[in-house]
Design a protein that fits this description.
Component of a complex that catalyzes the oxidation of glycolate to glyoxylate. The chain is an alpha/beta fold. It has helices at residues 11-16, 23-35, 42-49, 56-60, 67-79, 86-96, 98-113, 116-123, 125-128, 132-136, 168-171, 173-185, 201-205, 212-224, 236-243, 250-257, 262-269, 289-295, 299-305, 329-332, 334-351, 361-368, 381-387, and strands at residues 149-150, 158-163, 188-191, 230-233, 259-261, 282-286, 312-315, 355-358, 378-379. The chain has a five-stranded mixed sheet. The longest helix has 18 residues, at 334-351. The chain binds iron/sulfur cluster (SF4) (2 copies). Residues 9-12, 23, 26, 51-57, 67 line the site of one iron/sulfur cluster.
């Protein structure tokens, strides 16, 4: 319809105030790419690729335009016959291979523990290799694997399997532990199936859609084999991808029927007997785009945090605007991403909360990595809840 209702929702339009940086202009470029026959200029491609894929435009569109899949399909066409940079090709390989991920985890651990990181940071090498942002978000990984099963604390009411994907287990163990503790506390055994793999989101959104059916098959098989009540995810970025796995056959429908965001599952199964300790913190909620614009279940976070007596929970102002993390966007478009993050950091500074919560690991990682980051840390809401058990 080209009505323009999506324009004001777009973070890149907020940054640049340019028609080329609007969803509407990008859709015209996508139309050219998908229909073929018309030349797409280099400038049109630059503006298309500066999209964060936050999908805020979808929520504003009266025509229910499916921007996410249009963008993915255009990227798939553009990537045909295109040579990838070594960095991009290695990132895909890392996500695909457990063995390579293990090697990376060992390397990161050595890099940080040996003191090499501080040396390299001072040397200027990171700037030369264009790796400043990647270094900024690097964290000491957890080296031990998770157990196959975590039994409920008291009487077992059921069983759930936790989706750990590709990077959560080594890099966000704190949240996985919190999820396990909470699920055990409400009476559920937690299983961690080893056959699961990455959700496939990075491949889906970056022109490598041909690899996605394999991720889907492996994940469906890993969970279908289990006698469980639910498949539970903790990161909304992965959850948004899992939620959009095709449902055009029985395995697809079954997988979807058992899929839950951990916040929703906890809320639905929270027993009256379970009381949390009081906590008088002022908490600001950052709503990740994957949660707000795709899963649309951001209210669950507020409801769940209300289980903590004494807590003061408020939305962070500007919650409808992306923080800049945007999957790999923080690495591919560091300047745009940093400007959006600065806006978020200003909102945090004016709200002056004791803590900020975000249900997406990528947002928390990116907000916490800012050099100018306030002393207020961004954590997963589950961490706060588990601390009050
Ligand atoms: S994408 Fe939707 S909201 Fe945006 S211009 Fe087109 S019809 Fe309007
Ligand atoms: S996905 Fe986000 S950044 Fe991309 S066009 Fe839509 S609103 Fe703008």
């Amino acid at each position: 319809m080209r009505c323009g209702m999506c324009v004001g929702q777009c973070p890149t339009y907020k940054l640049f105030q340019l028609n080329e940086e609007t969803p509407r202009a990008r859709i015209r470029t996508i139309e050219k790419i998908l229909a073929g026959g018309e030349t797409v200029s280099a400038s049109e491609l630059v503006h298309l690729n500066s999209c964060l894929l936050c999908r805020a435009c979808e929520t504003a569109c009266p025509s229910r335009m499916a921007y996410g899949s249009l963008f993915d399909n255009a990227q798939a066409v553009l990537s045909e016959g295109r040579r990838r940079t070594i960095l991009a090709a290695s990132a895909f390989k890392l996500i695909e291979s457990k063995l390579l991920r293990r090697a990376l985890i060992t390397l990161i651990t050595l890099y940080i523990r040996s003191g090499l990181q501080s040396l390299v940071r001072r040397s200027g090498l990171l700037k030369m290799l264009n790796l400043v942002e990647a270094d900024g978000i690097s964290r000491l990984p957890s080296l031990s694997g998770m157990a196959d099963r975590y039994p409920a604390k008291k009487k077992t009411l059921g069983k759930v399997a936790l989706f750990t994907g590709c990077l959560t287990e080594p890099f966000d163990r704190e949240t996985l532990n919190a999820a396990t503790d909470l699920l055990n506390a409400i009476g559920y055994d937690v299983l961690i199936p080893k056959g699961q793999t990455c959700c496939g989101a990075i491949h889906q959104h970056n022109g490598k859609q041909q690899s996605v059916p394999d991720f889907i098959r492996r994940n469906r098989e890993a969970f279908a084999a289990l006698d469980i009540d639910a498949v539970v995810f903790i990161a909304t970025g992965c959850g948004a991808m899992l939620d959009e796995y095709p449902q055009d056959d029985e395995p697809g429908v079954e997988f979807h029927e058992r899929l839950f965001d951990v916040d929703d599952f906890l809320l639905q199964h929270w027993p009256d007997r379970l009381r949390l300790k009081s906590c008088y913190l002022k908490v600001a909620v950052h709503e990740p785009c994957s949660q707000r614009n795709v899963l649309k279940n951001q209210k669950s976070v507020y409801a769940l945090l209300q289980k903590i007596p004494g807590i003061d929970v408020q939305p962070l102002s500007g919650s409808d605007v992306c923080c800049g993390a945007g999957g790999a966007y923080m690495l591919t478009h560091p300047e745009n991403a940093a400007r959006l993050r600065d806006m978020k950091l200003q909102a945090i500074a004016s709200a002056a909360p004791d803590v900020v919560v975000s249900a997406n690991f990528g947002c928390a990682l990116y907000l916490n990595s800012a050099e100018s980051s306030p002393t207020v840390k961004v954590i997963h809401p589950l961490k706060l809840l588990a601390d009050c058990l």
